[in-house]
Structure formats: structure tokens, C-alpha cells
Amino acid sequence: MKSIQASAMVRNGLKLDPRQLAVVCASHSGSEEHFKVIRSILSGAGLSEDDLMNAVDKPLGTPESAAWGDKPPSHIAQNCSGKHAGMLATCVVNGWDTKTYLDPSHPLQVAIKNEFETVCGEKINIATTDGCGAPLFALSTRGLATGIHRLTVSSDPVHQQVLNACRLNADLVAGSGRITTKMMEAVPGLFMKDGAEGVSIFSMPDGRTCAFKIADGSTRPFAAIMKKVFTSWSINAGIDDQNVMGGSQVVGEVRCALDL
Q1: Quick one: which H or E segment has residue 222?
Q2: Pairing between strand 191-195 and 249-254?
Q3: b/e per residue, 230-244, with b = 16+ CB within 10 A?
Q4: What residues contact residue 157 under an 8 Å CB cut-off, 6+ apart?
Q5: Is 108 left (phi over 0), alpha (psi -120 to 50) or beta?
């Protein structure tokens, strides 16, 4: 969802460098580099971490969480803090209230909803609240795939700015060791983003797009699904077989049964 949210921000005057824009699109791991870039967005808008209103959490990444140690959860450590920094900066540009930017009726959230409906081709009839605290709009999986496809092939400079920022800064979109970062670094031109509850999207510059949702929210099938899709696209993404272990022995593998 974040690439579409970021597109609405850029369309409404948000001006960031590619690294900053990539972290606005991120579900980041919580490295010091992520924090540095997020703080630069906030300071550029005359704001600070105290202005963030997303949920508090510890870093998402395993090594990043270990490095965080016993420090209490914070707004900036939560994986959506880049998006919230971008939302706040967009409010400053437009003179919108920064205290109520998460209200669904706020001009920022109305603009984001409009971007979703335009790009995804579906009317948003159901809205709830994301785990980070921002409004969350319900889409079908096909609607999400349509939206990412349209972003990818769009001639709109807003859309291309957002996707290129992510492609050039895959380390900021996710983090070291994460499948999103590894795949964008391995496959030239790939745009990818993973999401909560077993959602993922990826697309190639020519418009080939995949979106999927794992029913139980698990990420275990991701690599197997991606390998199957990339193979059908005649792309060697270097994805290893997903072995199933019985003790120290390989007793099977996770396979994707999609008929592609």
C-alpha cells in the first residue's frame, strides 16, 4: 500500500530525495541508517520524533531488534515511521494540521484514498485502522495487483519517482537479509514490497505484476511463490529451494502449486 500512499504525498507537494522517499515507502527493519533518513525528513519539515503519532514498537529486523536491546519501544523504531514522517512533512507543505493527520477525514487521508481509487480501479467502501495507526483501505487482491501494475507502467512522473526511489534504495525499503531487499538487488528493475499478514507485491518494468495474500498471514510460502512466478516469467531470481527438515535431514520442500 505504501507506494500508493507515497504517490499521493508527492502529488500533494512532498519533495524528498530518493533515499528519503524510499523510506516513506518502507516497512523498515529499524537500522540506524533508517533512523537517520527518517530524522532528516522530520527535520527538513521543522519537526521531530515527538511529532510522530504512529504506534510504538521495537525494530522489525532480527539483528536490529537485538541491537536495540532493552530500550523501550518507540515511534521511530516502529517499521512504518518513515511513512508517518512523510505524512507529517506533506501536512507541513500544505499547511494542514499535523495533530490530526491520522483522521480519515483529514485532507491528507482523503487525498490518499483518492489515489487508491484512481490507481486501483476500485471504490473504497471499507476503511479501518492499520497496526501503525494510519487509515487502512480494503482492496481485493486483484485491485492491489491492478494498482501496482498501473504504477509500474505509468508515465506519470509522480509514480515513476516513487518506484525508482525504491528500486535504487532497496536497503531502505526493507533491510539487510530481508527478501524484499535481496530480490530488488538481485533482479534488475524489480519493484517489490512485502506487507503485514502475508501480503506481497512485485512487478517488472514491462508491467508483469504479482500480488498475493497468504490466508494464515505466514511468510513461509513467499520464496516458493516468488520462485514459481519468476520461473514463469523466464527470470532466474536465484531463489533457493525451501527445504523442509526432519531433524538434520532434508525430508521435503515447500512447493507452489499455482498453475502459471
Answers
A1: helix 222-232
A2: unpaired
A3: beeeebebebeebee
A4: none
A5: alpha
pLDDT at residue 12, rounded to an integer = 98
* Predicted local distance difference test score (pLDDT) of residue 260: 80
Cα 93 to Cα 72: distance, rounded to the nearest angstrom: 32
CB 72 within 8 A of CB 45: no
Enter the C-alpha cell of residue 156.
Answer: 506519470
Distances (CA, A) of 131 to 47, 128, 214, 222, 237: 23, 10, 18, 21, 31
Nearest-angstrom CA–CA distance, 65 and 59: 5
Give me the phi and psi of 129, to 5 degrees please.
-120, 130
Distance from C-alpha of 16 to C-alpha of 19, rounded to nearest angstrom:
8
Q: What is the CA radius of gyration of the chain?
A: 18
258, pLDDT greater than 90: no
Cell 507485491 found at: 201
Average of per-residue pLDDT values in the chain = 96
**CB-based contact 55:136 (threshold 8 Å):** no
